Each structure stands twice: as C-alpha cells, then as structure tokens.
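FORM 7B: Structural annotation worksheet

SECTION A. Query
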Amino acid sequence: MRLIYSLFVHLYSLAAWLSAMFSPKASKWVSGRKNQFEVLQQKALSSDQWLWFHASSLGEFEQGRPVIEAIKRQFPDYAILLTFFSPSGFEIRKNYEFADCVAYLPADTLAHARKFVDTFRPKAAFFIKYEFWFNYMLALRQNDIPLFFISARFRNKQHFFRSYGFWFRKQLKYVTHFFVQDEASSSLLSSIGITNSTTTGDTRFDRVAMLPATAKPFPDVAHFKGSRKLIIAGSTWPPDEKILSSLIAALPEDWAMILAPHDVGANHISSLSKSLKQTYQLYSVYNQNVSCKVLVIDSIGILSQVYQYADFVYIGGGFGQSIHNIQEPVTFGCPVIFGPRYQKFSEAVDLIRLGGAFTVNNQGQLLETAQKLMQDETYRNQCSAVCTSYVSKQTGATDKIMNHLQQHLFN
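SECTION B. Predicted structure
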C-alpha cells in the first residue's frame, strides 16, 4: 500500500509540473521546490534545536500560529521550521517573524521524507489539522521524533474509519499525541483503538479572539461605510457572487456592501466589477470624493481586520468544496450566512444551532435571511451576542496544548 501511495505522490508532482505551464499557482508550487534541498541544508546548519511545524495553507497556519508563538515566548532557544504545501500559505508567510526557516514541503516521497528529517533532525514535529503525509510520518517514527497533531478533526467518512482503511489506521499509530477540536473526533479515534488524544478545541480561536483589540483602522473602509450599515461578503467564489447579485440589487438606502473575493487576480476583479449593477469602487484606488454602494477589496491580507466594520457577513465557499473561515467575522460579533457545504467546521454547525449563523441553499433563501437581519435590529443584535459569547467560550486550546507539551516534551 505504501508503494501505491508513493506512486500517487509522484503522479501528483508530475501533474503539478505539467500544470505549471498554464497555472501561476502550480508554477509557484513547482518553482518553490526547485533545488530546495541545497537551500534547506544551509538553513539547517543555523541551529541544532529545530521544532518543525507543517501547515497546508494559510488557514492551517493560523491554527498552528498560537502554539508557535507560545513556544517562542517560553522556549526561545528552539528554532522554528515552518513548511507549507500550498503557495497561498508560503507566499504570504514566507517572512513570518517567529519562524527561523520557512519553506515548501518537499513532495512526500520516502526518499524526500528521510532526507528532510535527516537534514533538520527536529526535536519534535507538529502537523496541523488534516496534514497526513504518511512517508514523513514514517520517517519521523523511524528516527524516534515525536509527532503531534494540532487542531485535528476527524469525520466518520474519512478512510481511517472505513472497512478498507486498515493501512491508513496503522499510520495513525505513528503519531505521539493528537490535540483534537471536539469530543466527536476523540471518540472516532477511540473507536479504532487510538486513545492518545486530548480534546482542546480549535487553537485558531485563541488567535482570532485577539483581533478586536489589535485590528488597525482602515480609513477608506470607515469612510465608505459612513453612517450606513454594512454587509461584508468575504472569500467569495463565482457561485457566491452569482447569488449575491439579488441582495446587492435590493440593498436599502442605508446599507452598503463590501465584496472581498477569494480570487483577487486582475481577470476576476475585472469580471466581477463588470457584473455589478450598483455603483462601486475598487479598494486599491478608492476615492473618498466619489460615492458608491459597493466596495470591492482587490488586495489580500486585510479582510480579517476589515470585518470590524461589518454588521453581518456572508462567507463564501459553501457552494463549492466548503466554506471559508467564519471565526474572524464571528469574533467581531458578526452574524454569518453561508452556503450548504459547511459541515467540516464545528463552529459553523454550533452557531447554526445557537442562532448566530445561517445556511442558505439558493438566492431566495439568502435574500430572505439577509432582509430579516437588515430590517430587525433587535434580532441582529441578539445574533451578534450569540457570536461574541461563543468565541469567548472557545478560547484556551493553546494553553491546554502547552500544558501537555511542558509535561511530555519540554520537561
């Protein structure tokens, strides 16, 4: 089975190499890994006390970030190696101040895994959420290097829990400890004989809980909002933007909207702008002397803080693979609306049940839900209070993880 898995990794790498001729993202994925071991071997010489954190992309990094920074505060002698699978994570965090080396993860072949582990000889490794790279997991075990999973979440449809999943279940035995988000994940692990888990919650809540106190002001956004109420549609994809069109057209006089698409490339921004029937401006060239109904955020890295201006939020992705992060708007007390594919995120499930979040299946449901939030301020404030309370009850995962590590790793 490992041979089949490794073959799949090779085929994926080949597909990425071929796609690089047409896709800028694939091109970065390939070019970022070119001759990388030469660079990594030089970087590795700068310390003999490495701790390795691996994240798929930016969202997973944010889940690992509170632990990285807690370790740096308490144990500054350790060097942090941070790897990413995706360019969207690496490009934004390649200069992350708390990491001593930021790199792409070499493709998960057995040769790469053994070479990478031998190069850095980390004192421990931390994989975040769903990053199951089985050859790296084996290489760590063969070198007696502890492996921890942070903010892991398991679902019964994963191959670990299927009748054919014996080999995959065996790989989980290589993990020293799982820090899982919820009791359901812990129970699933127990059902296959894995009891080395602790339910800590999601570490990202520790990060986002600080946003209201640390978010910087955005004068152009504040000017655009003015005395109006504001809806922010964040991390949207074309299917989201299609169903948002009726809401944009129906905005009352005292409401405005910010559109922050997931894809801020020139082609998509141009296409999105042309589809708007209301007056709009682009954030990058915002003119305070020109009034408009819609502001299009055509840059990255600011959305998590811009949510401070929202009265409620629509989160994209729910009409594709899955919704994007809802924790950032929720921490500002923003009720959230999203499409039907949200089940991977426990906070979305919880907040729907509690009344701080809403799922919609079509344009009509979106318009109905949004109009109730716009027209009934008391109701909107009640939903907002649910969100604020929920975040305050979810914090503390980082402390739980650090308490465990102090007893079993840093003792």
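SECTION C. Observations
The chain has a mean pLDDT of 95. The chain has 20 helices and 14 strands.

SECTION D. Sign-off
Analyst initials: ____
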